[in-house]
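Work Package 3 (structural annotation) set out to generate three-dimensional models for the target panel prioritized at the project kickoff. During this period the team completed the workflow that converts sequence records into discrete structure tokens, so that structures can be stored uniformly alongside our sequence database. As a representative example, we reproduce one entry of 232 residues exactly as it appears in the project archive.
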Amino acid sequence: MSDDIRPEDDNEGGPVFRDKRRIDPETGEARQSPADAQAAAAEAAEAAQPAASAPDASAPDPDDLTAEDRALLEGEAQSLADERAGFEAQIAAGQEEVRRLQAEYVNYRNRVERERAADKAATTASVLSALLPALDDLDRAEQHGDLDGSPLALVAQKLRASIAGLGLEAVGVVGEPFDTAMHEAIAQLPNPDPQATEMTIADVVQRGYRIGERLVRPAKVAVFVPADAPAE
């Protein structure tokens, strides 16, 4: 029997054969002993450790830098800092420009909306001005009682409602204070109230009209003048 295959007794009393040949008879390759396998595994594990754990021999030691090298590094650092500051300044300037443009756009939009509203009011006032004589005729007919019980009363009601829907408002009401911005005084009467201190409307001769803040036509009125007011 070869020395590479030796029988041994197992615990049950039977022979056990262990193959200790160093050459595998099937593949022809050398076999590793358990000790050789452990040594190879330890060597592979040591080689697999990260290279970062070892000191980088190529990195210069700060203590070994010369004054010229230090000055060069400091110059590069200052250059990078200046470049960063320049970029930050450009970003800040760009943000400020964006805010300025946004504010200009908001102002432009508001101005356009105001101008559009003013143009609309002017156009509406121009169209409704042509209807004011018809409204005056209806007012006079109503004062004389010509509308009572006639079909024209319904027409007058619808016409006034339609015009009011376009924003036209009547100006001049008996008893309200006289306002030169909206009223035109065509007659002055002494106020029967001795306690009165301001001019008030005594009668509306012709209605005035406005659209919003735009006066289409002032109201022609007769006014009460306080007794102590100077004569004009």
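Helices lie at 34-48, 67-129, 132-143, 151-165.
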